[in-house]
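Journal club prep, notes for RB
We'll compare a predicted complex against what the paper describes. Inputs for the 2-acetamido-2-deoxy-beta-D-glucopyranose case:
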Amino acid sequence: MTYELCMKSFQSCKATNVYCGLVIMIKLCIVVCAIFASTWAERRFIDPFRTVFDPPTEFQPLTTDDVKTAWIDMPIDHFDPQNRDTYRMRYMYNDEFFGGNGSPVFILVGGEWDIVPGWLRAGNMYLIAQENRGHQIYTEHRYYGESLPYQNLTTENLRFLNVDQALADLAYFIEDLKQTPRFANSKIVLYGGSYAANMVLWFKQRYPHLVVGGVASSGPIKGQVDFTGYLEVVHSAFSSEGGSGCISTIRQGITETIAAMRTAAGRQSLEKAYRLCSPLKYDSPFDLGVFSGLISWSFSTSVQQARPGTLIAICNNFANNVYGTTPMEQIGGYIASTRNLPADDCWDIDYESYVERYRTRNDNSRAWYYQTCTEYGYYQTAPRVGTVFDGLVWLSVPFYVDVCKQAYDPKFDEAFVSDAVERVNLVFGALQPDVNSTINIHGAIDPWHALGVHDRDLKEGSPTITVPRASHCFDMQGWRVSDTIAMTNAQQFARRTVAQWLAD
Ligand SMILES: *[C@@H]1O[C@H](CO)[C@@H](O)[C@H](O)[C@H]1NC(C)=O
Ligand SMILES: *[C@@H]1O[C@H](CO)[C@@H](O)[C@H](O)[C@H]1NC(C)=O
């Protein structure tokens, strides 16, 4: 979150381009303030699901002259002709490669995050645009970033937040684009990662007449309430990258932690090892759920962001006792290190304040948790197959669903969430989408691949590629020195296939 704040302030500086030196000084102040503010307000909050990916690293925030921001008036409800209300949807575009009449348009589909210009300045879609003389666009998803139908995200106001409306936004946007003489003859290709990869596949399925194809990176296209598979992959990622020594240290650390909860002396050493601000409420399963999340969400964040070498480095640190002495201290130290907990600070583990945050803040996190309650589930529960995370039984469906009830509506109970997920699976076909001309890319160590189609093509002409050692949305980035040949091949395959769609 802090990172996004910094990004935004640099961009507005560049956009206005006035008194930039002075403005940069103010921006620096804002960044510093943001960091300070975050140390007491924002930083301790751990958001378990929402994907926030940083744009490609080769992109420099201060050279984004060629990316412009624009807005389009969008119906709030595409499915009720009597409702004429509109909101302003934000998008960004980069025209540097456009070859004129008949040249293609590439749309990067926004998901549960703020759009930022860096994604139109580097990465695989940027290369595709360069190679095919394409115009690039990045659309923001309704209810995220600055594309807000309502300022106050009450549960009532969230009722127009669903993927059906978001796909219709995209259709309306593309129809509007095609009215512009400049793009009237342009073929359109979508690219999207994570939840936005679902959107690419579902858009191509529902609106096949509007786009010639789509690249879907790491799409978990099947909704699931009790998503044990997620932490199973986190386990196997550490196992395949770091080996059995690493797994056994993590297992000892977590086992020791759970055992420590049973005695007074154990509890004291646990609170010290994990640097907790105050004792845990050991008789509250939901407080233990948040504490379990501190552990599991830290390991899963490392895995989701991993490039080849990342997990090996963490495992080497475990082997060399870099994070602490006992296995439990090692886990606590790893979490503090990977989440940048300042030396004089501590973790405040408290279910009430965890829920309060979702209940009261009008931000991306509240919007996305709402979508998990009403569309996808995706609850990362404790596995039951012998992984290092099996013992964290407080990561349960009742724990995750209680947030739905408390933050949005008491009627959002397990039956409600389960029906909601079933609806989405029925409407979009879950693991059997009927979709032509798409590329479906997964990383074998990405925990989300467990809810995607990763072991077969979607159909002829809609190939699937699952890449060993690769993680979440790896292909969207630019080339990195740590990439394996298989990763680079997958990116090139996507570029070649898109070029073929355009040639047909
Ligand atoms: C949003 O609406 C709720 C319910 O009407 C109200 O209690 C709350 O103060 C509002 N929040 C903001 C930030 O306006
Ligand atoms: C996919 O393409 C095939 C062959 O061109 C066509 O027969 C079929 O109707 C298409 N399916 C969809 C869902 O568009």
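Talking point for the session: Residues 147 and 458 are 32 Å apart (CA to CA).
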